[in-house]
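subagent[fold] <- orchestrator: predict structure for attached chain, return tokens only, no commentary.
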Amino acid sequence: MNPFPLVLSAPSGGGKTTVTKRLMERRSDLGYSVSCTTRAPRAGEVDGVDYHFLTERQFIEHRERGEFAEWAVVHGKFYGTLKSAVSAVLASGKHVMMDIDVQGAAQFAGAWPGAVLVFMLPPSVEVLLARLQERNTEDGATLLTRLRSAHEELQVVSRYHYVLVNDDLEPTVARVSSIIDAEEVKRERIRALDSQLAELIQKLDSEILRHSSGIRQ
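subagent[fold] -> orchestrator:
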């Protein structure tokens, strides 16, 4: 298997984190690259599991050393993915599963051209609002910021390889899983394909010649 990164993006409240967690639970061929952030942990979040929670100074030091595959400022906080974290997962033979915003996805695609980009749309604005409000972490100003961000994010959906609507969790998880399966067998991901094909064609040529000679006799 030739492992590749899969980037899942969606507006805040779009369900990308939930879908990612379900896929990680069900597929042994996925590894997760834990991102860094300067935002405060939410209830139940664990440092090093959900995110690496850094101070702004720590984050800037990583950035200045060129250690991020992507980084962005989202809702006033820094987010980023360390190159070393991605490389470690790929080296283990697993696909890298990441949920990052559209700014980060664009940078990451530049660093890893073989990455697969998937965008999840909410079924409606009403559903998106309901999901954000269910968190009970959004004050009026924060909610407005997230809605404005969602408006901007929808303008760049055409950059993504796949777009799906997250209207029902289980079918959405299944669709993303199917994307991974399909990408695994894409021609350009199969290592040494050209040499394999050349060998097969050469052997077929020999067999055709041998059988042709037998028929002529």
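orchestrator: received. Logging for downstream: The radius of gyration is 22 Å. The mean pLDDT is 87.
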